[in-house]
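## retry 2 of 3
previous attempt timed out at serialization; input unchanged, resubmitting
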Amino acid sequence: MSRDSASPSRAAKGVRVLVVDDSAFMRYLISKQLSADSAIEVAGTASDGVDALRKITTLRPDVVTLDLEMPRMDGLTALGRIMAEQPLPVILLSTLTHEGAAVTIRGLEMGAVDFVTKPAAVNVTAADSTWQQLASKVRAAADLKMRRVGLTIQARGPLVSVGGRVAAHAVSRPRRSPRIVVIGTSTGGPRALFEVVQHLPADLRAAVLIVQHMPAGFTKSLAGRLNDVSPLDVREAAEGDSVETGTVLLAPGDFHMVVRAGGRITLEKTPPIHGVRPAVDITMQSVAAVYGASTVGVVLTGMGTDGTQGAIAIRRAGGLVLSEDEATCVVYGMPRSVREAGASDRAVRLEAVAEAIVEAVSASEGEMGVTAR
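## retry succeeded, writing output
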């Protein structure tokens, strides 16, 4: 379902937001900070998930900011109901703790479009960067395409019980990869990654690198959750890691992930590119330089142009580039940029991306130059 960006309320009053938080002080503070932006109108507030669901129906906001820890109905339960019944762009308010990161990743998997971390209690009124970031994300979220979500993540391959949970792992020991797949994504990316990674087979004859725009403290939880559902071994990349078949390495937040000759990972704190670190372009360009025509690049949903220069480098090296089709993107920004630059061989719907990766990896080098459509 697409949001109507030309509705009378939006044109006259800007982006209408429902603020959901169990703390009266936080509701007041968030409302005050968002209202200071002339493009945003706080349509109302809610104290928990039950209150939020009722007010979404009556107030019809464009965007919801959602606290995750609330009584009566918590944020994840409310999010599941929102995405299943009346999908809206939801921005999560997360705590910067291990538990907070894990719950946030689950929320992104369920369909939330983005998140911001709550400032520490001692600095809550002085966290200008947090409120600016929240306002920016609210404005950007207003026109995102949302669909009803009934997301079922299934573990594939041999199952192993780990501390009461079920995890899936590759059936064979990793070996040095003759092919390498680089996936880049941003807004809407976590849910897209769950769709793709869970459907990659255990015998995929390639290593996989993932760059998701995400701050430090959250990528480890994302890698762990992806590992839960994948037949491949998924983990956050570390300095000196080898690029190996059967392994998926996720760039850690606040580091560029670079592949050096010999297939070794280095993590760098060089300046952000496109305002982000990790950047997709950095990883793709380094992989193209090392692996050449054996590279498969994949650009999924996200704002901006990150990934375009990397895709161009992959194409110039003789590799293949897939971009997510506009019809399934939450944000058709990064894939659009790649397509408009002439750097995409194929536009693929999200549910078909894993199959397209397998086909690209399995093809002989002479077949990898797929004609763009």
